[in-house]
Amino acid sequence: MRIYNTMTRQKEEFVPIEPGKVRLYACGPTVYNYFHIGNARAFLTFDVVRRYFEYKGMDVTYVQNITDIEDKIIAQSLEEGIPFSEVAAKYANAFLEDSARLGNKKPDHQPRATEYISQMIALISEQVDKGFAYESGGDVYFEVNKLPQYGQLSGKKIDDLKAGARVEENELKRHPADFTLWKAAKPGEPSWESPWGKGRPGWHTECVVMSKDLLGVPFDIHGGGTDLMFPHHENELAQSLATTGKQLANYWMHNGFLNIEGEKMSKSLKNFFTAREILDIYDAEVIRFFFLSKHYRSPIDFNRELIEESDKALGNFYSALSATDWLNADAGNVLIPPELERYRTEFTEAMDDDFNSAKALAVLFELSGKIRSDAISMPEKLVHAKLLVELGSVLGFFQNLEAKLTKTIDPDLLNKIETLVEQRNTARQNRDWAASDRLRDELIVLGVEIKDTKDGTTWKIN
């Protein structure tokens, strides 16, 4: 099994620290609002990483933190006029709800930053004592020039780091790239007592403490979005090297960016969507299929056309299973013959190659196509269906299989609807509006809602 390691910029054979076990840490949300659809990609990516390791028989300990004290939370508490703890609790609960709606399994541990304040103060004190950090104006900063390895994860050089968008300019710092370990409290802000006065820990320290406590140092894999590589992950790594002399993790994984209709997601562009908003429109497994149809490291464009394609592709999986009368079939006694083991092999080869879910999905497509064809018998269809469910479940599909199949369109009805829609599209192209209206009425009788857009015609069963 090979994983692309951000640290080395290459795929490496995955060798766990302890045979048969995987210790995985992935950055969770800062709970100041509902998480957006770009965050959803990261949460879903590492859910699949965890699922696949478990499928391979590994004992996985998966930690995903919840940052419940941070500048944005304080700002949101002022905006909503409620204590920061209420803001954090409100959106932490929303995160848990929406993550479950996405079909993500609950991590083994979901520590909250405020539960670890004393350990964070101890870690900061250790860095001060070892000469890697200094107090200035009630704040405590990590001095990047003291650590020769600083920048090894992101590839950034200290001399090139100027005060700007990602490095706050602050006259209290010895170098613009020095980062905050402890923030002195301002009037009205939440705070804790410390050797440097009242304040709160910096974000970069929080993850180091929680991962170290629950997984040890080093652990196997640290994951998150590409946007976290610098400064967050670089600054986590720096603190581990300064205090333990060890790498924080042996492998660093980062998922690619999400764009909306070809543009970076931004509130100013009015293309900012929360996962909750998207889940109210599309089925969670459609969103899951959409993300997994691209390699996790590749950028992906969130647009209506691709979502509709994902919806249709996923529908093919369910209609294939419906065609086998899966719910009434005795799947437990269905044996996979040796000649069909190639499907498992191709699936695991794809996932072993840096979690290539797009290639793994191709195996599911092939299985679905076989089931839907008339070339094989019903017993053979059931064998293929069992493999489809087994391998699809590794990617997080088919979690509510019985409920979904009871709603799945009968294959004959599906073919009839698709034929009528195609005939209607032809009539519209020929400007035969009478025929178009007649075909629309036939579809309405079948319970189909038609929607004509500039991108084409979509339909759904009411």
Describe the structure.
- By secondary structure, the protein is α/β, with parallel strands linked by helices.
- It has three domains: 15-260, HUPs (Rossmann fold, 3-Layer(aba) Sandwich); 303-408, Up-down Bundle (Four Helix Bundle (Hemerythrin (Met), subunit A)), CATH 1.20.120.640; 412-461.
- It has 15 helices and 15 strands.
- The chain has helices at residues 37-55, 71-80, 84-101, 117-129, 203-215, 229-244, 275-279, 284-292, 304-323, 341-352, 357-372, 378-394, 401-407, 411-429, 433-445; strands at residues 2-5, 10-13, 21-26, 59-64, 133-136, 139-142, 179-184, 199-201, 219-225, 249-255, 258-260, 263-264, 300-302, 448-453, 456-461.
- The strands form five sheets. Strands 4-3-9-10 form a four-stranded parallel β-sheet, sandwiched between helices.
- Strand 3 (21-26), helix 1 and strand 4 form a beta-alpha-beta unit.
- Helix 5 packs across helix 6, helix 8 (284-292) packs across helix 9 (304-323) and helix 14 packs antiparallel against helix 15 (433-445).
- The longest helix is centred in the C-terminal third of the chain and has 20 residues, at 304-323.
- The two termini are 45 Å apart.
- 38% of the residues are buried.
- The model is unreliable at 163-167 (pLDDT under 50).
